Amino acid sequence: MIRKFITNDTHFLILTETKTPIQKFKYKKMKYCLQPTLISGKETRQAGVAIYSHPSYQLIQTSSRFSTNPGHFACGVYDNHGSKVLVGAVYGEPSQADIQSAAIFQELHDTLSELTALYEINRIILAGDFNITFQYSDTSSTIYSYTNRKPRAKQVLYKIIDKFQLVDAAKILKNGSTHMAHNIIKIPVLQN
Questions:
Q1: Half-sphere exposure of 150 (CA within 13 A, CB side)
Q2: pLDDT at residue number 1
Q3: So what's the pLDDT on residue 182?
Q4: What is the pLDDT at residue 184?
Q5: What domain range includes position 46?
Q6: What's the pTM?
Q7: CATH number, domain at 135?
């Protein structure tokens, strides 16, 4: 399924809810030479992120950062002929636990702040399943009121967007949302 979305100009592939032991990713290459470069996870359904990168983007090993609670984010700085790109894979807290969700995003904020202070970053790309709603069309759920969902976490995520001058891809896509039916793909991409 994933292979059909990869083209020869795909630079990064970001996966969430991988539910796969890290050892199984180490040698699993994708189409067009995409290689697993950053992986964080645990063996539960609701965890795990992986970043695959094109060989023209070399991960700066000392830049690798992972969430304290495995499987919620992985970030790293990639060098492409002197241009540095900070790439992050994010899997937000899936439950309605606002405090835990806000803590994950605060840790992500601190990690991005650290990496942008250490490296001269040309671009930031964050993608994944943030498990948060910014607008009513971001959810297919009728169980929870959109306005009451994770206000603390939303505030921290807005802080990240503002500080790093990121753009929510969902706002510029024609259909207004980046998730697809049946949870096949949920990719809000935030990029500066």
A1: 26
A2: 52
A3: 36
A4: 36
A5: 2-191
A6: 0.83
A7: 3.60.10.10
